[in-house]
Write a structure and sequence with these properties.
Number of helices: 6
Number of domains: 1
Mean pLDDT: 94
Shape: globular
Strand order of the largest sheet: 3-2-1-4-5-7-6
CATH topology: Rossmann fold
Distance between the termini: 41 Å
Number of strands: 7
Helix content: 25-40%
Structural class: alpha/beta
CATH architecture: 3-Layer(aba) Sandwich
Oligomer: single chain
Length: 184
């Protein structure tokens, strides 16, 4: 439903980039294409709270001979919990996970912590309408509601991006604003 190569290219992925997919899932829908696009000197973090998901990603990475994929077990809803260095990422993906988050403010701050200034964040979510697959429409989050969580000094809204008929996409850039100043 979402073409990973088109989404990654629209987001500005490039050779040698460091990318994370928060809540990556076991399919590796964005992980494997990202690993290909960043090249051997880039790095792709597959982040999930389920260890079995990460084990599956590790098997896929080995099978496809991608040595630039690192799995990270952790709860993206807890600020500071992901074992990725501060400001390491050029691109952070959050696909179909904002609506299931139990602590969206902490999740958004965690994304800001991980991104370097000028790095980009992509948020893709189910449109709040019934579709053949996906969660029920009343469990989905509308675009304007999603935008509210990123209305922080850490993110500059760049554009709405086309990601498929059942999804909307939002593209942000990380500003240089310190997260600590917000938490103080």
């Amino acid at each position: 439903m979402i073409n990973p190569f088109k989404l990654l290219e629209r987001a500005g992925i490039h050779q040698n980039a460091h990318v994370a997919d928060l809540g990556c899932g076991s399919i590796g829908h964005f992980i494997l294409p990202a690993a290909q696009l960043v090249g051997a000197d880039g790095k792709v973090y597959a982040v999930d709270i389920q260890r079995t998901v990460l084990e599956h990603i590790e098997k896929q990475a080995k099978q496809h001979q991608f040595f630039n994929i690192e799995t990270v077990w952790g709860d993206m809803d807890v600020y500071g919990s992901l074992r990725i260095p501060d400001g390491d990422l050029d691109l952070c993906l959050l696909v179909n996970n904002l609506f299931v988050s139990t602590n969206r403010p902490a999740l958004v701050r965690e994304m800001a912590r991980l991104l370097k200034p000028g790095g980009r964040a992509v948020v893709a979510e189910w449109k709040p309408v019934e579709t053949i697959i996906g969660p029920p429409a009343d469990h989905r989050m509308g675009m304007e509601q999603a935008k509210e969580f990123f209305n922080l000094p850490h993110f500059e809204f760049l554009d709405e991006i086309e990601v498929g008929p059942a999804h909307y996409g939002l593209l942000y850039e990380r500003t240089g604003t310190s997260i600590e100043s917000e938490l103080a």
